[in-house]
Design a protein that fits this description.
Elements lengths: L7 H12 L5 H8 L3 H13 L3 E6 L7 E9 L4 H9 L4 E7 L4 E8 L2 H11 L6 E14 L17 E2 L11 H12 L5 H8 L3 H13 L3 E6 L9 E9 L4 H8 L5 E7 L5 E7 L2 H12 L5 E14 L7
Antiparallel strand pairs: 1-7, 2-4, 2-5, 3-4, 3-11, 5-6, 5-9, 8-10, 8-11, 9-10
Protein name: Lrp/AsnC family transcriptional regulator
InterPro entries: AsnC-type_HTH_dom (IPR000485), Dimeric_a/b-barrel (IPR011008), Tscrpt_reg_AsnC-like (IPR019888), Tscrpt_reg_AsnC/Lrp_C (IPR019887), WH-like_DNA-bd_sf (IPR036388), WH_DNA-bd_sf (IPR036390)
Organism: Streptomyces roseoverticillatus
């Protein structure tokens, strides 16, 4: 896919939308120093190129635990298994990597029974699945309000833990209706949300304000990095000395190349997703940035071959 002509204003608009995906055009125009008409025109052009803004629940705030599954499959079955996982409502993204024999899947679970049904019963009995490893996301350093895929113009979000000290928020029928509608269009208007939820606009606004203020609702911006000339998305699996895990995770969150970074359980205790233009850029990043970080004992890279599912929030 060829890159397109996007100027600095387009890039700044993408960055502003990552800060607040529902920001009105009037505020975006004021912040960027251009007319509201210009912002509307640029936004519609980006939409025609595939820009999506999606509202989604924050798993930890709703009492959900996020898991990263890593499956090794026979080459002839990996695509079929990935498609089956993508159809599940509890998965948020699925990607194929490593020669088409390995796939990654993000999963949200509320109970041990939900987790075990897939990990202990369903997947081990699936033909052509050679191995399954499940990694609990203990702390998310970058991409806390995003799915696995993010744009090159990543804006680091506050770190999210796998749990919360507060009582998990239990969404009511209106909240669930809003989650479903915002999953289709994060910038749906108040009248559209009111119709979808069957509630008055003022009631819908109160629900939105509560969900956002209590950290239960986030917004993700998706714009294909290949359109900007970034053709290599790569998963990085790092084994970091425990004393340096927080430092390395927080440092990765400041790197514009990194769209997602999380401390996870398993042999590799830190996983990240990076977006690069070329293999040479990936090498330079590993050499100049990863190599200088303290406590890194080993690293594995796995370029993404195909994104089967992305920006599909697993609804509560």
């Amino acid at each position: 896919m060829d890159s397109v002509a996007l100027d600095k204003l387009d890039q700044r608009l993408l960055q502003a939308l990552q800060v607040d995906g529902r920001a009105p055009f009037s505020r975006l125009a004021q912040d960027l120093g251009v007319s509201e008409r210009t912002i509307a025109r640029r936004y519609q052009r980006l939409r025609s190129l595939g820009l999506q803004i999606v509202g989604h629940p924050i798993p930890a705030r709703l009492g959900l635990v996020r898991w990263l599954l890593r499956l090794r499959c026979t080459p002839d079955a990996a695509g079929t298994i990935a498609d089956a996982l993508a159809r599940r409502p509890d998965t948020s993204w699925v990607t194929l990597a490593s020669g088409g024999t390995e796939l990654y899947c993000a999963l949200n679970t509320r109970t041990a029974d939900e987790r075990n049904a897939l990990l202990l019963r369903k997947l081990p009995r699936t033909p052509h699945v050679l191995s399954v490893s499940a990694h609990c996301m203990m702390r998310i350093f970058a991409g806390a309000t995003s799915t696995w895929h993010a744009t090159r113009f990543h804006v680091p979000a506050p770190a999210e833990t796998s749990g919360t000290a507060d009582t998990p928020l239990t969404p009511d029928a209106t909240d669930r209706a809003l989650f479903a509608e915002l999953a289709r269009d994060g910038r749906a208007t108040l009248p559209e949300l009111s119709t979808a939820a069957g509630r008055s606009p003022s009631s819908v606004q109160r629900h939105l304000d509560r969900l956002r203020s209590e950290g239960a609702l986030g917004f993700s911006v998706d714009f294909d990095p290949q359109l900007l000339g970034y053709h290599m998305t790569t998963q990085l699996w790092l084994n970091v000395a425990p004393a340096h895990l927080r430092t390395v995770g927080e440092t990765l969150a400041t790197h514009p190349e990194i769209a997602f970074a999380a401390a996870v359980t398993g042999p590799s205790n830190l996983v990240a997703s990076g977006v690069f233009r070329t293999p040479a850029d990936l090498y330079d990043y590993v050499d100049q940035h990863i190599g200088s970080l303290p406590g890194i004992q080993s690293m594995e890279t796995a370029p993404t071959l195909r994104e089967v599912k992305r920006l599909a929030p697993a609804l509560p």
